[in-house]
Write a structure and sequence with these properties.
It contains 5 helices and 7 strands, in the order ααββαββαβαββ. The chain is α/β, with parallel strands linked by helices. β2, α3 and β3 form a beta-alpha-beta unit. The structure holds S-adenosylmethionine.
Amino acid sequence: MKYGERRNHPWQDIDLRDYENHMCLDDVQQLPKLNEIMKEQFIAYPAKTVMILGVAGGNGLEHIDPHIFDKVYGIDINSDYLAESVKRYPQLLGTYETICCDLSEADVILPETDLLIADLLIEYIGYDCFQNTVKQVKPSYVSCVIQINSDAAFVSASPFRHVFDRLDEIHHSLTEHSLSEAMHAIGYHQRLRSELALPNGKKLVRLDFMRPHKEK
Ligand SMILES: C[S@@+](CC[C@H](N)C(=O)[O-])C[C@H]1O[C@@H](n2cnc3c(N)ncnc32)[C@H](O)[C@@H]1O
């Protein structure tokens, strides 16, 4: 993106380096924690295909074994993030494919996969849109991470804080209970809950869902 250019969606205005530097700060620590969680998400279920919503720069993709997965889709609204994610993992050539789209648009078309991962993404699209995405991708397994805040601010204090100011425009407050209800309403049952504490008093909560029978 050229200096001074402003795009439409708030996430298209955030430089990947600013995002990743913020997420790696000692008192934020979200990038390494999400990386650990993704390693577990990839091996938790008998999936041959996986879609990662809000893949950003590809954090965690080093844990993909191309002998296990036939196809890995990375979805994001920011094309610069996706280009960087492809550059970082040359070993996934032929396995990893990116799709640049705004998941909140009604006309998005996505392929079907066995496993769907959405870590710190549902906050930006809301329950209805997430339900629509799940219904389209028809995964047998869904694994999500949401952030639970102990204070009001969903973006942690940091020297990069101002970079995220426009995220207020699109942020949805989530609860575990409402997410479980939204998934239940489209035929998915919760099968796992785990949480990881962050240094700043926040926590990452992982919720996994599955549907009893895959309808095609
Ligand atoms: C907090 S980051 C996700 C963190 C990432 N999963 C990780 O492990 O580092 C949210 C990501 O979702 C993407 N995103 C937000 N809203 C979106 C939308 N409407 N459609 C597609 N991608 C979106 C952003 O561009 C960003 O890369």
